[in-house]
Design brief:
- The complex is a heterodimer of chains A (about 240) and B (about 240).
- Chain A has 2 domains: about 100 residues; about 120 residues, Alpha-Beta Plaits (2-Layer Sandwich), CATH 3.30.70.1880.
- In chain A, strand 5 and strand 6 form a beta hairpin.
- Chain A has a 5-stranded antiparallel β-sheet. Chain A has a 3-stranded antiparallel β-sheet with strand order 4-5-6, covered by helices on one side.
- Helix content of chain A is about 50%, strand content about 25%.
- With about 240 residues, chain A is α+β, with helices and mostly antiparallel strands.
- Chain B has one domain: 2-Layer Sandwich (Alpha-Beta Plaits), CATH 3.30.70.1880.
- In chain B, about 55% of the residues lie in helices and about 20% in strands.
- In chain B, the strands form 2 sheets. In chain B, strands 1, 2, 3, 7, 8 and 9 form a 6-stranded antiparallel β-sheet that branches.
- In chain B, helix 4 packs across helix 5.
- The radius of gyration of chain B is 29 Å and the shape is elongated.
- Classes of the chains: A alpha+beta (about 240), B alpha+beta (about 240).
- At the A-B interface, helix 1, helix 2, helix 4, strand 2 and strand 9 of A face helix 1, helix 2, helix 3, strand 1 and helix 4 of B.
Chain lengths: ~240, ~240
């Protein structure tokens, strides 16, 4: 009787243990399944953006074809070709940041705020340069077409430099730091997502951040106004180019 | 009576515990063996939906690379015509060509060569399984290096062959970094910059400067700076729609 009891107890316990494990594995495998779905989601997001990029590339090719045709048609007439080149120069200046850009966008105002400072200042004033740098970077990464800081256009050659705790230089000009305005033309919703990631940092510097939307196409970002000169960079060899 | 039963209860409890552990071990072992086999099978078949998407993605990426190559070729064709017009010396073509070339370099539309520097940065070696965010490269670190290079007089910069342009954003997407909209890159990050090699090197390596902060405080890895001629590829994107 005692032996029989022990044996049945053994069997029951083994079953119990197995059931517990199965239960644990089921919970566990659900999360594993999520990972697979996650991979799929990640892949399909990437696919969507690559397809979008493909459309942009085809647009660019289409545009270049037109320009080359126009150049070739005018090759016999130097004066007309020069005119076509002058037109092309305007296009190039736009993408280089040397033309004013007008459109929809956002105006970000960052200024000293007693309310924010009262909550506690974590970041020293010397961090402002890197925070502004981060905001501009995230604007560009979120479909901004043109960005200016205190009226100075930010291009590939632009720099933001902390001179001292309360002095900043953008491009080569000193700017005020108690109240700063950033203007950005581009995709409003997307740009706001990028900028909002910095709201907490700005607050922890004892400053407030306000974002205004301009939807009537009237926002103007000025042209880059520093002299442009290349001493070292030259187009790669004529044949290889 | 309860005192008499005590050894039996004790035995029952210990037997239950031991058996439960045994059962747990047995099923874990079984589960583990099965999971290993399953994982090996999964590598081959994956999720059919994910596999299909991955194949499509690969195809579109390849097509996009070819399209980028076409754009580069067409831009070269235009540059050649501009050069010919300038060489003919008629009208104001020479001045126009110089202006065009200058702003095309600034916009990143032409491949450029010149004296410059090359260096590579990578995450610090971590013990496997540990994670320390201060010991990996973030988007803002890369952006800061670009800023320092321009402060040192850089004229053109690339990160893993992606040209920095007026609309370049560098953003962390999971463990990779996205630059110029869609190019996903991962460490190590190779920087190339055209400009005065000594000035750019000094800007990075000055005492208390970026390299100092990165290597001593963050333990991130930075290679030796190589000075000499470099060639940078062009940008082929649409400037976030600005070029339309």
């Amino acid at each position: 009787m005692d032996k029989k009891f022990k044996a049945s107890l053994f069997v029951v316990s083994v079953l119990l243990g197995s059931m517990l494990t199965v239960q644990f594995s089921t919970v566990h495998s659900r999360s594993a399944q999520n990972t697979i779905t996650g991979d799929y989601l990640q892949l399909s997001t990437e696919l969507t953006s690559e397809r979008e990029r493909q459309r942009a590339l085809y647009d660019e090719i289409h545009k270049l074809e037109g320009q080359i045709r126009s150049y070739q048609a005018k090759q016999g007439n130097q004066r007309e070709l020069a005119q076509a080149m002058a037109d092309e120069l305007e296009n190039i200046k736009t993408v280089a940041g040397l033309s004013e850009v007008k459109g929809n966008g956002i105006v970000i105002t960052i200024e000293d705020s007693f309310e924010a400072a009262e909550k506690g200042v974590v970041y020293e004033p010397s961090h402002l340069g890197s925070i502004l740098h981060g905001i501009v970077n995230y604007l560009n990464g979120n479909e901004a077409q043109a960005v200016s800081l205190e009226g100075h256009r930010l291009t590939s050659l632009s720099t933001i430099r902390s001179i001292s705790d309360y002095n900043l230089q953008v491009n080569t000009v000193m700017i005020r730091t108690d109240k700063l305005t950033i203007k950005a033309v581009g995709n409003i919703d997307q740009m706001k997502v990028g900028v909002n990631t910095f709201a907490d940092y700005v607050g922890m510097m004892g400053k407030s951040m306000k974002i205004e939307e301009v939807k009537d196409g009237s926002l103007i970002v000025p042209a880059y106004d520093e002299p442009v000169e290349f001493k070292y960079a030259q187009p790669e060899g004529d044949n290889k180019l | 009576m309860p005192q008499k039963l005590n050894p039996r209860v004790k035995l029952t409890i210990s037997l239950t515990v031991i058996s439960a552990i045994l059962g747990l071990m047995l099923s874990t072992q079984y589960k583990h063996t099965r999971a290993t086999a399953q994982m090996q099978a999964q590598v081959l078949t994956a999720d059919p939906k994910a596999k299909y998407t991955a194949e499509q993605l690969k195809k579109v990426k390849e097509e996009n690379m070819q399209l980028e190559a076409s754009i580069e070729k067409m831009r070269k064709q235009m540059f050649d015509i501009e050069k010919q017009a300038a060489d003919a010396g008629k009208s104001n073509a020479p001045e126009l060509k110089d202006e065009l070339t200058k702003y095309k370099i600034m916009a990143g539309l032409l491949p450029v060569k010149g004296q410059g520097i090359t260096f590579t940065v990578s995450d610090s070696q971590l013990e496997s399984g540990s994670y320390d965010p201060s010991r990996i490269w973030h988007d803002y670190d890369l952006r800061m290096l670009v800023n320092e290079l321009y402060l040192g007089g850089a004229e053109a910069v690339t990160i893993n062959n992606n040209r920095v342009t007026t609309t370049t954003g560098i953003m962390c997407i999971g463990p990779t970094v996205m630059i110029n909209g869609r190019q996903k890159i991962a460490p190590p990050f190779e920087f190339k910059a055209i400009g005065n090699p000594r000035m750019m090197s000094d800007a990075l390596t000055v005492q208390g400067g970026v390299f100092d902060a990165i290597t001593t405080q963050r333990h991130l890895t930075v290679s030796k700076i190589k000075q000499g001629p470099v060639i940078l590829p062009p940008y082929t994107g649409d400037f976030n729609g600005l070029s339309k």
